[in-house]
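Researcher: We plan to redesign the surface later, but first we want a full-length starting point. Tokens attached.
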């Protein structure tokens, strides 16, 4: 029997009493899945997982994705996306160094956006006994529920375009500015034409109904939403800024302080998240698996 302990007001819970390195019976898995969708973000402490064990556990939720950034996949395990500031013996980045700069939902620019992401903490930076590199999560369902009725009626009619191309351009510009100001330098591979062609811009409703919980949420995010359709860019930018500020109010946010051995999962339909980069040059190493969700139109 698992134990579920709430960690945040609208989202976030710790699940204890389970070893994810071992095969789970159907009843235990069903309890975990129920707790996950109820809490939108859940974490398991003190896990010891091989890449194959992480893949096996998250695959029970659905089909796993291989990230478009092939250079940041784990060798011999395409399903694992490596997030790290570490370099190999030749000075090459072993994973994505700058993932999560903006509030975003993983792979929201795809025709079949992610349902679930699971991030495993292999190495966590510690300074003066305090873990660095916290990750923030915001509940887009709680944010939608809190909107006035008139605003709900307005956003229910809106559509937005999610663009991997525009995200990479914006992210690269921010990296260049960081380097110019002497904040941090990262190795960012320019996406190939083939990579960009595999993730064309996707238009979808701003309000999305969750296929499991049937809750409505705001399916927009600072990282991947390029514009609202039917508006000028200036009008779209102003409207989006208001919605982003609403979603990321402290009331709707859970902050996770990492420990080595944490396996944390979040619901990409109901939640968006944002990384912090306060740990360079201390090493950090995370492995992420991502479960494909249903298609959107």
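Model: Full-length starting sequence:
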């Amino acid at each position: 029997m698992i134990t579920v302990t709430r960690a945040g007001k609208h989202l976030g819970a710790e699940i204890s009493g389970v070893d994810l390195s071992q095969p789970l019976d159907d009843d235990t898995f069903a309890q975990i899945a129920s707790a996950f969708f109820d809490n939108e973000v859940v974490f398991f402490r003190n896990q010891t997982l091989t890449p194959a064990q992480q893949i096996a556990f998250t695959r029970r939720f659905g089909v796993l994705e291989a990230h478009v950034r092939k250079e940041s996949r784990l060798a011999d395990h395409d399903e694992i996306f490596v997030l790290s500031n570490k370099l190999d013996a030749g000075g090459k980045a072993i994973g994505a160094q700058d993932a999560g700069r903006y509030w975003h939902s993983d792979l929201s620019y795809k025709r079949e956006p992610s349902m679930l992401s699971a991030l495993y903490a292999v190495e966590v930076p510690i300074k003066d006994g305090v873990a660095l590199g916290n990750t923030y999560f915001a509940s887009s369902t709680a944010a939608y529920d809190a909107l006035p009725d008139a605003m709900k009626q307005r956003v229910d009619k809106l559509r937005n375009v999610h663009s991997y191309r525009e995200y990479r351009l914006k992210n690269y510009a921010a990296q260049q500015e960081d380097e110019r100001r002497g904040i941090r330098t990262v190795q960012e591979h320019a996406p190939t034409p083939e990579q960009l062609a595999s993730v064309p811009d996707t238009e979808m409703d701003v309000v999305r109904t969750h296929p499991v919980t049937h809750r409505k949420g705001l399916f927009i995010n600072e990282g991947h939403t390029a514009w609202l359709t039917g508006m000028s860019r200036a009008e779209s930018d102003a409207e989006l800024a208001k919605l982003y500020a609403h979603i990321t109010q402290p009331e709707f946010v859970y902050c996770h302080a990492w420990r080595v051995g944490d396996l944390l999962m979040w619901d990409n339909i109901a939640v968006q998240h944002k990384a912090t980069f306060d740990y360079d040059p201390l090493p950090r190493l995370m492995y992420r698996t991502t479960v494909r969700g249903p298609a959107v139109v």
